[in-house]
Amino acid sequence: MPIKKIKLDNSVKKSENSNDDQKKASSNVNYIFYFDGDGKIKCDIGGVDNIELLIDSGSNHNILTDKTWTFLKSCNIQATEQNANPGKIFMAYGSSVPLTVLGSFQAVVKIGAEEKNSTFYVIQGGTRDLLGKETATDLKVLKLGLDINAVSESQNQGPFPKFKNITLDIAIDKTVTPTSQPCRRIPVPLEEKVNKRIDELIELDIIEPVNKPSRWVSPIVPVLKSDGSVRLCVDMRVANKAILREHYPLPTMDKLLPKFRKARIFSKLDIRDAFHQIEISEESRHITTFITTRGLFRYKRLMFGISCAPELFQKTLERILLPCEGTLNFIDDIIVYGRDEREHQTRLDRVLEVLKKYNVTLNKKKCVFNAKVVQFLGHQLSSEGVKPLDTYIKSVDTFREPKTIEEIQSFLGLLNYVNKWIPNFSTTTEPIRKLLKLKIGLKSDLSKYWEQEQKTAFDRLKTQLQNIQSLGYYDPEDQTQVLADASPVGLGAVLVQIDDKGPRVIAFGNRSLSEVEKRYCQTEKEALALVWAVEHFHIYLYGRKTFDLITDHKPLEVIFGLRSRPCARIERWVLRLQSYNYRVVYRPGKNNIADPFSRLCQFTHNTFDREGESHINQLVQYARPCAIPMQTLIECSEADEEIQLVKEALNTNMWEPRIIQYRIFQTELWTHDGILLRNDKIVIPTSLRKQVLDAAHEGHPGIVAIKGRLRTKVWWPKVDRDAEAKVKSCRGCTLVTAGNPPLPLKRRQLPDQPWQDVAIDFLGPLPSGHYLLVIVDYYSRYKEIKVMKSITTADTTTMLKEIFSRLGIPITLTADNGRQFTSQDFKNFCQEMGIKLLSTTPYTPQENGEVERQNRDILKRLQISQTLKSDWQSDLLDYLMMCNSTPHSSTGKTPGELFFSRKFRDKLPSIVREKSGVDGEVRDKDTIMKEKGKAYEDRRRKATEYGIDVGEKVYVKNVSKGNKLTAPFNPTPHTVLSSSGNEYNVRNDDTGHEYRRNIVHLKKVQGEWQIYDPEKHAQDVPLDSNEALDSDKNE
């Protein structure tokens, strides 16, 4: 639909903006009228789509009928600030009967890409839903006055307006080493809003993606606004070090005063999002690159935070306005003046014509036309002349009388600083100074000592302090200092300049602390004082080469540094000062002349950063664990002794030993509504930590996952340790997670001679039904392989007798827990032969590693035989010939040579040499290679030494699972009875059955447990899967 246009003639402009008296004269009655030609538009109100509103240029307010309100409620409108009695009176145009107002509410209204948080009034019996003038203008569907302020509907979805034919180059110092900073973690609930804002900026052609590496990368800090949307602040403090500034001079009032002497009529124009209307050259954009979770982006337009932005914009706009008479600008504020209405209107028309030529878009809400009194550069311009604003010079007038010795010292400190401009200083201050001789405490009440003599001297000094000759004369070339101080109730600031004649006071300032701000810790109050002071003296400091911020709070020197990570509240304030070039300097409190302004002034209640408090409130809400009500969190924090000691230490900088673990984070700690926070994470009181850990472990995340989950919202000392203990003590997690890591390898010592220590095992069954009996000599690695159809104990002992008849009887025989090796008949056979039988721990084949390794090689050759369809038994003999005549990797000698003290003669031609003593060489080689293999395997498997004490409770690994959902470990606790090396004897606490296991098959039971009492359990309970398998092995 077309944009509604309304032409305001000069008389209407004048009547709307002439002076404050006319504004105050307007009554509380709000008239509602519309024309038939007014357009309709569909919009989204509080999340409800397709609400048709009539654009009413004659109403300042948004009006809804009671029927529409009922419909919105049925659609679950997202409304806030509902008020049954808003105190507004509405009348239809031409009527004297007030309309019935049912109430008001606030909601976000959206039209296209534009949105605004607006107030709607509900009228009983209304006939039309109206979109008021102010809201329609802000949403860019209504155009008022001259076209310079209009934004067409097509622009709602397109690029943001920019100055025509103007592109800025930012000078970069290439000698400064580029810095690529990491991405700062963004609270998870804000990620969606940040991504949405990035998409909006891309659509507006303000930023663009970066698809290649960038040497300059800055982080972003998302700031929540009161309407729930987010603003992206790029931390340019490091990148600004590489930007070369032109130091183009900004205008000062002392040089502009002669131009305003005959001015009577004024107009003040403000440029909408001024910096974003100037495009940056392609070569300069890389310095603005910032990183998000979605990757790299950079600005295409000038942005807040670039140190040279103010001076570049000032120079650009001055050149644009050069053809315009009676026109001056300070950054984005333009002042047009004239001796009479005719001259002023001619100049204003010329200015608007030039601005339109360069496609400059103004902010109508901040523009003032045809006014007799305006404020500009900290001064009030009127037909009566130019005078400084009271906000800079009248702070002293609000001084109350000192009530303590400490306050007297503070007041006299200020007077001593400017005493050379106060006549008869010593005589005038004598009645007050003599109170310092009283032998009372610094904070003792002085009421009974404060008499008329002191009151007269105090009032006279206040008057002289306000009228010192130098006050108000500012020279941009002189050294400039801002002294700021915070007391428990207020803030004070003094602007001082120093020349060859010494220091002089330029301006004063003070403000009270709101009830919320009074609860800040002292570091936050002092930081607030610095930021507020800079913005209070903005017209003197903006665009300066440099100035000093003087504070009596030492930690601020670090907190305001480039590499610091302050708490969320201070971080937001620091970013507000990015466009100023300042240096924070510590100076002891006794030399801070801003102290009396923070203590003695009589204050009015206001809040410095309301949007910031909304940002903090939402951060706390996002960080709060949902299972814990906010009131509970506040009450537990107030009752937590540790947190209260930390709060006190933040104010006094006195850290007790019991809270010393907080001190390293003191620059990141802050308080809000009784809650202690570290950056944007809540510090959980001791009494709630178990509840928070339980909530974080819902869904059974692992150690890494639960730590990551906690770190996004909460913190307390050693939170990672507590999270790790929580996961380890969870019975469900313990039963299903992976077992213990493998132990470091333990190498078997090389026997003294061949056929002392041998290992035996069966391989099979093979597809033919055969089994292979494999015997390996640990000294020479010589092996024997026998093909068997039956592997009973009798058949096994018969085959061993045949082997022993040829090779002799070994000293030890190592075997697994197969039935034939654990039977009593086999034990008797070994005893008869004088062989020591060594059985491995069940399900631990690595204890008989030599023969298991040979089994793997044998199986590989059998697979080759089957693939080639050859005779596998014949191939097996060829394999044996190859193995016994090939040097082993550990010994360097062939198994046949070591076993028979001669070389095997095979098909390869060779020269037979006489036997030489090789035992020492073999032993050294074997030791070296085993140690290398041990080190490699321990490193590859991340092996580590650990043990389990006798009497401890353990879970035993299920070696045979019933199905895929069966946990790796048996949930029944077992008690460790004894141990030998890595072998442990354990007892089932339910059945009392005892069996052996390797330590890697055991896992400690974390948390509380009880000692098993066999008398309380039945004797004949069915065995579990572990016991059944063990019994099969005849343990």
From TrEMBL:
<dbReference type="InterPro" id="IPR012337">
    <property type="entry name" value="RNaseH-like_sf"/>
</dbReference>
<feature type="region of interest" description="Disordered">
    <location>
        <begin position="1"/>
        <end position="23"/>
    </location>
</feature>
<dbReference type="InterPro" id="IPR001969">
    <property type="entry name" value="Aspartic_peptidase_AS"/>
</dbReference>
<dbReference type="GO" id="GO:0006508">
    <property type="term" value="P:proteolysis"/>
</dbReference>
<feature type="domain" description="Reverse transcriptase">
    <location>
        <begin position="204"/>
        <end position="381"/>
    </location>
</feature>
<dbReference type="InterPro" id="IPR041588">
    <property type="entry name" value="Integrase_H2C2"/>
</dbReference>
<dbReference type="InterPro" id="IPR043502">
    <property type="entry name" value="DNA/RNA_pol_sf"/>
</dbReference>
<dbReference type="GO" id="GO:0004519">
    <property type="term" value="F:endonuclease activity"/>
</dbReference>
<feature type="domain" description="Integrase catalytic">
    <location>
        <begin position="750"/>
        <end position="903"/>
    </location>
</feature>
<keyword id="KW-0378">Hydrolase</keyword>
<dbReference type="InterPro" id="IPR043128">
    <property type="entry name" value="Rev_trsase/Diguanyl_cyclase"/>
</dbReference>
<keyword id="KW-0255">Endonuclease</keyword>
<keyword id="KW-0695">RNA-directed DNA polymerase</keyword>
<dbReference type="InterPro" id="IPR000477">
    <property type="entry name" value="RT_dom"/>
</dbReference>
<dbReference type="Pfam" id="PF00665">
    <property type="entry name" value="rve"/>
</dbReference>
<dbReference type="Pfam" id="PF17917">
    <property type="entry name" value="RT_RNaseH"/>
</dbReference>
<dbReference type="GO" id="GO:0042575">
    <property type="term" value="C:DNA polymerase complex"/>
</dbReference>
<dbReference type="GO" id="GO:0004190">
    <property type="term" value="F:aspartic-type endopeptidase activity"/>
</dbReference>
<dbReference type="InterPro" id="IPR001584">
    <property type="entry name" value="Integrase_cat-core"/>
</dbReference>
<dbReference type="InterPro" id="IPR041373">
    <property type="entry name" value="RT_RNaseH"/>
</dbReference>
<protein>
    <recommendedName>
        <fullName>RNA-directed DNA polymerase</fullName>
        <ecNumber>2.7.7.49</ecNumber>
    </recommendedName>
</protein>
<dbReference type="GO" id="GO:0015074">
    <property type="term" value="P:DNA integration"/>
</dbReference>
<dbReference type="InterPro" id="IPR036397">
    <property type="entry name" value="RNaseH_sf"/>
</dbReference>
<dbReference type="GO" id="GO:0003964">
    <property type="term" value="F:RNA-directed DNA polymerase activity"/>
</dbReference>
<keyword id="KW-0540">Nuclease</keyword>
<dbReference type="Pfam" id="PF17921">
    <property type="entry name" value="Integrase_H2C2"/>
</dbReference>
<keyword id="KW-0808">Transferase</keyword>
<dbReference type="GO" id="GO:0003676">
    <property type="term" value="F:nucleic acid binding"/>
</dbReference>
<keyword id="KW-0548">Nucleotidyltransferase</keyword>
<feature type="region of interest" description="Disordered">
    <location>
        <begin position="1015"/>
        <end position="1035"/>
    </location>
</feature>
<dbReference type="InterPro" id="IPR050951">
    <property type="entry name" value="Retrovirus_Pol_polyprotein"/>
</dbReference>
<dbReference type="Pfam" id="PF00078">
    <property type="entry name" value="RVT_1"/>
</dbReference>
